[in-house]
Amino acid sequence: MAAQINPSILSADFARLADEAKAVQGADWLHVDVMDNHFVPNLTLGVPVVESLARATDTPLDCHLMIEAPDRWAPQYVEAGAGSVTFHVEAAAAPVRLAREIRAKGARASMALKPATPIEPYEDLLPELDMLLIMTVEPGFGGQAFLDIMLPKIRRTRELISKHGLELWLQVDGGVSASTIERCADAGADVFVAGSAVYGANDPAEAVRALRTQAEAATAKASWACDH
């Protein structure tokens, strides 16, 4: 049960993205937040930047689409070079069809849930996914405080994954830092998006290593991991 650390370039210097990608050598994925100023109240980047970033780094790209109409746009991010594409279930018209299309194009299919969206109605969709993202802040802005009230939801999601015997990654995004990552790992997360905790550090690559060490230590003691 290896923990994965995905630094979020939302906290990086957008004028130096290629250098910022290199600064987190050893990261498992590079988390790319795509916002359209409609689904969330912020505007970031799109397909052309993802294409450029894919050429500038060997670290695979984990694109988190906080956008309307992901059914239309998500496949373009696979074509742009993303290795994993996450769509929000609240915005998707046909999540199963979209997940299958993302997979068919060669990327990992992931579905995200906002804090107020329960996991239980989507239990039957889990086999269609490679990863599930539980937002631990309201999507739209970096640097927010971690919502502890999401921990029970992470636990319930891990229980559903175990119940169905799925090899499904469980990602958390929002306020993940040295002070919160162990709680997330104990609850059942195994993929951690960290923005300011990595890019705000003096040595981003060392921050990635330290966070992974913390997460793996917490996972080793977690009841959900011991059951495997």
Brief write-up:
It is an enzyme of class 5 (isomerase). It catalyses: D-ribulose 5-phosphate = D-xylulose 5-phosphate. By secondary structure, the protein is α/β, with parallel strands linked by helices.
Q: Which features would summarize this protein structure in a list?
A:
228 residues, alpha/beta, eight-stranded parallel beta sheet, 9 helices, globular
Structural account:
By secondary structure, this protein is α/β, with parallel strands linked by helices. The protein has nine helices and eight strands. An eight-stranded parallel beta sheet has the order 1-8-7-6-5-4-3-2. It is globular and about 45 Å long. The mean pLDDT is 96. It is an enzyme of class 5 (isomerase). Keywords: Carbohydrate metabolism, Isomerase, Metal-binding.
Give the overall shape. globular
Termini distance?
9 Å
**Strand order within the widest sheet?**
1-8-7-6-5-4-3-2
Could you tell me the number of beta strands? 8
The mean pLDDT is 96
- The helix count comes to 9
Order of helices and strands: EHEHEHEHEEHEHEHHH
Q: What structural class do you assign from the helix and strand content?
A: alpha/beta
Low-confidence stretches: none
Catalytic activity: D-ribulose 5-phosphate = D-xylulose 5-phosphate
EC number: 5.1.3.1
Binding site for a divalent metal cation: 31, 33, 64, 173
Protein name: Ribulose-phosphate 3-epimerase
